[in-house]
Amino acid sequence: MFLPAQMLAFALSGFLRLTIGFDIGLSTKCVAIPKEMSMCHNIGYSEMRLPNLMGHTSMTEVISKSTDWQHLAQTGCHPYARTFLCSLFAPVCLDTFIHPCRSMCAAVRDSCAPVLVCHGHAWPDSLDCDRFSADEDMCLASLTNEYKYIHKVLPKPACQTCPAVEEFFTHKRILEVFCVNNFAVRVKLSKKRTISGDQEYNIECQVEFINQGLLLPYDTQNMIQQWLLINENCTQWMTRSHRPVVYLIVGNIEESIVLVNQVYRWQRRDSQLILATRKWKHHKCL
Fold first, then answer.
1. Per the omega criterion (within 30 degrees of 0), is the bond before 124 cis?
2. Beta-strand relationship, 47-50 and 22-23
3. 1 in a domain, yes or no?
4. pLDDT interval class at 144 (50, 70, 90)
5. Where is the NTR domain (predicted)?
């Protein structure tokens, strides 16, 4: 779902623009990336510099300050979000500090700032892109064009007002709803506590139907997972207890934007819903 941040490989393959680097002083040290920083695991290295590029001097501070950013990285708001954030919070142990390039910062900011706004936060001054080097300096650059060439660019989930959970009527009414939407995905939601005490979600998706060009069920599952992470206030409301709950999420893809239009509680006794999903395969919309 997210592009691995293979920063050491970047250095070997020309991602780093060579010039004079920022020398690491004797006050820094190499430490293992803590298990609480899951977003910086499996990124090509296992040790980081401390203090880091955010000025955090203790591992307790690093873990505390990076928690909210880990949630942002999980949303998939930009393919290089993890690379950018980990280069700051958990910089690789080399002879010089490798800063992200200004262009990488701007690309991540432009894609991820709307997600922060959806969560009630603005892009912080501490990540002002003007503080980072231009691309001709020694810095970590993104390869946006190459990424688009290799990987399919999917529609982006929108930050939106939570649709009310609706009640089903007859299977005919359900089929009418299906006819005016692009997708229907059954979602099993549950929440858990992380090692650091924060709340995370288990999101299991099963696509009931998709009617949008070349999108595959796997693509649609990823989009709905991202929608639920971006619209976390909705996900919190839908998982008010720790008991797993199942919903049917129905929506449209308009101008490369994923919009959820209806949310239905899926319960075993909803025979009309089960009948509708079976009949859909042979149903002809008017």
1. no
2. unpaired
3. no
4. low
5. 159-285
Q: 3-class DSSP state for residue 181?
A: coil
Structure tokens at 44: 């090509």
CATH code of residue 34: 1.10.2000.10
Which range marks the domain in which residue 265 is found? 156-282
User: How many independent structural domains does the chain possess?
Assistant: 2
Tell me: do 98 and 11 sit in the same domain. Answer: yes
**pTM for this model (two decimals):** 0.76
What angle (nearest 5°) sits at the alpha carbon of residue 150, between those of residues 149 and 155? 75
Closest to 117 measured CA to CA, from 260, 223, 258, 230 = 230
- Residues 127 and 180 reside in one and the same domain: no
Encoded amino acid at 63, one letter: I
What share of the chain has pLDDT > 90, as a percent?
Answer: 44
19/139 same-domain check: yes
Residues 176, 248: contact at Cβ < 8 Å? Answer: no
> Which residues, 6 or more positions from 143, have their beta carbon under 8 angstroms from its beta carbon?
15
CA 123, 115, 92, 59 dihedral sign is positive
| pLDDT tens by residue, 245-284 | 999 999 999 888 999 999 988 887 778 888 888 898 889 8
Q: How many Cβ atoms are within 10 Å of 18's Cβ, its own excluded?
A: 10
Give the phi and the psi of residue 211 in degrees, each rounded to 5: -135, 70
